[in-house]
Amino acid sequence: MVKPKFMEGPLKGNFASAYAAMDADVDVITAYPITPQTTVVEKLSELVGEEEFTERQHVEYVRMESEHSVGAGLVGASYAGARTFTATAGQGLLYMTEMVHWMTGARLPPVVAIQTRGITGPGWNIWADYGDILSLRDSGIMIQFIASHQEIYDSILQGFNITEHPDVFLPLFPAYGGFVLSHTAKPVKRIPWEEAQKFVRPKTPEWPHVWVDGERPIMSNALIMPQNFYTEFRIKIHEAQMNAIPVIKDTMAEFEKTFGRGYGNGLVVPYKCDDAEVLLLGYGGNALQAEDAVDKAREQGYKAGALRLRTYRPFPKEDLLHYIKKIPYVAVMERALAFGSPTGGAVSTDIMAICQRDPKARNAHIVPFIGGLGGRDVFLDEQIDQIKILYELKEKGEVPDRKYKMWDTFWTGLITGDKKVEVENQEYFGDI
Amino acid sequence: MTEEKKNWELLRMNREKRPKVQNWTSYWDLPYGPVSLPVKGSAGRTGDWRTFRPVVDNEKCIKCYFCYMYCPEGTISVNDETGFVEIDYNYCKGCGVCATNCPKECIDMEKENK
Question: ipTM strictly over 0.85?
């Protein structure tokens, strides 16, 4: 046995992704680089040849010519029964979109790590913004928002236990903020190979529903007429999403039992919600920072709690309602803009929808906040200000006004002209 | 996990257990995804789409079987007794590839007059 080069210590988020994929014993990795994902596939290309891994596993590392082909490669390898992994972001994910729909339609179980970045439109941006992964909200994939370096490793390791579960068979896309997590280093602990293999699902030579065999050929993607089973197969994907909720919970519970660390119940992560009067609800790195904001606000006398949405698809309806019923003043903080939607945010719209369907949560106050787009920092003060806005709402009974409130949504960090930023802008855009 | 593992073992199929035919009657019968097993005419009687009908003149035919090789739909077969080709008009779409590739030009494309 060769001594591993890295077992624990400071590690970049992207490298944590790469190690997690190797420790989950993947068979095929298809790769094409894109900022800020590049270092994942770079690291993987190193790892597949490192002695620690070559002596016990064979990983097929396939360099592709585009993200569309990366998706197609995953689909092809996965049809054959291989455990597959890749990572992509932003424009790459958009280019892969067609193949993402194929994965869900064919019910294949790859795990794809997403280093979220702003979508280039024009307005070129490569920094953290969940707009890219949320544009695939309705494609049938499972989406998880990751908030810390260790969680990246743990989530990808858990990933295949969820996707390859016989009740599920859908791809999982764990997403974390580009650069915020991908290019920063924090302590990460790898799980030793034998222990990891005891946890990770045993491999199967093929899936129950698709196979590659010349003796008994199959055809996937046959034409289905409207009067035949197209509707039913679409509902099957929805059924799989619903089935995934207990699977994600069980996987997280087992992980916590085995390795002694966990992230809520796998769906939502509460922080000081027991005695809270107002609730900061968010996802990704910002939601982890909200826990600090809660601590600071409590020093000032505001009894706040934080709730981190970890799994967005399937949507953890029951778990969210459990907290919203207890704490009916909720700020939903989002780092993505759903243009033209009722609140401007996909998550806050969903939360309003589940509240409307539950008589006990119907009177909850959901206040949408959107900020941090394209990697702009969301400051602790701004999050404490969100708590104060909720308290004003609680005392006066109506949502207070701010200069940065438009169309009933608060645009956190909006440049309102109150602070001087003109000089910086001149330097940035030149003399337009 | 143990219950679930059992479940998995049941689902894990070996070659013998793969389905031979798929008779779906309702939502609850369906497999994970739409996978079709090879059957004749799974897309219906495609012969109905035909505008021109290939007709082989067996007197000129030299049994080179070019048409049999070129037919994109596999509707041309060889009669084991006579050695001549036969066209399955239920599924022939009338594309005319056979007529174009016939070296003896013994396949005529005749207009369908229904």
Answer: no
**Which has more confidence, A240 or B40?**
A240
Structural domains counted in chain A: 2
What residues contact A372, with CB distance under 8 A and at least 6 apart? A128, A129, A286, A335, A378, A412, A413
Does A215 contact B at CB distance below 8 Å?
yes
Q: pLDDT of A376-401, one tens digit each?
A: 888 888 999 999 999 999 999 889 98
A214 touches chain B (CB under 8 A): no
Pick the closest to residue A336 from A284, A291, A288, A402 (CA basis).
A284
Choose the final residue of a domain: A211, A227, A259: A259
Cβ contact A140:A109 at 8 Å: no
Any B CB within 8 A of A223 CB = yes
A209 within a domain of the structure (yes/no): yes
**A250 and chain B: CB distance < 8 Å anywhere?**
yes
Tell me whether residue A57 is exposed, middle or buried, using C-beta atoms within 10 angstroms of its C-beta: 0 to 12, 13 to 18, 19 or more: middle
Choose the closest CB to B12 out of A208, A213, A235: A208
Domains and CATH numbers, chain B: 46-111 (3.30.70.20)
- B2 has a pLDDT exceeding 90: no
Nearest CB to A236 within list B12, B18, B30: B30
Q: How many CB pairs under 8 A join A and B?
A: 73
Instruction: Look at B1 and A218 and tell me if their CB atoms are within 8 Å.
Output: no
Are A247 and A165 part of one and the same domain? Answer: yes
Q: Which domain holds residue A341?
A: 268-412
User: In this complex, is the C-beta atom of A107 within 8 Å of any C-beta atom belonging to chain B?
Assistant: yes
Q: Please check whether residues A227 and A318 belong to one and the same domain.
A: no
